[in-house]
Amino acid sequence: MEVTIRALTPADIPAYRDIRLESLRLHPDCFGANYEEQRQQPTMHFDAQHCQPKPATHYVGGV
Question: Are 41 and 21 in contact (CB under 8 A)?
Fold first, then answer.
């Protein structure tokens, strides 16, 4: 099995959002965020939060 690790791009946001919301719903005790609050955020919120470079924060996905 080959695994590729790369920075998320805006095209990844819908899938990332779905995975994150499912994780929040199924395992709320593992996160500081709230499922309902995150569910109400527009997709644009995830794009701005996860795909804009920040000096000390990186979000990666594996495929």
Answer: no
Q: For the chain, what's the residue count?
A: 63
- For the stretch 10-57, pLDDT in tens is 888 888 889 889 999 999 998 888 999 989 988 777 776 666 666 666
Say what the pTM is: 0.68
**Alpha-carbon distances, residue 25 vs 4, 14, 35, 54, 56 (angstroms):** 27, 17, 6, 27, 27
Q: Which residues of 20-58 are buried (b: 16+ CB within 10 A; e: fewer)?
A: bbeebeeeeeeeeeebeebeeeeeeebbeebbeeeeeee
First-to-last alpha carbon distance for the chain, in angstroms, is: 10
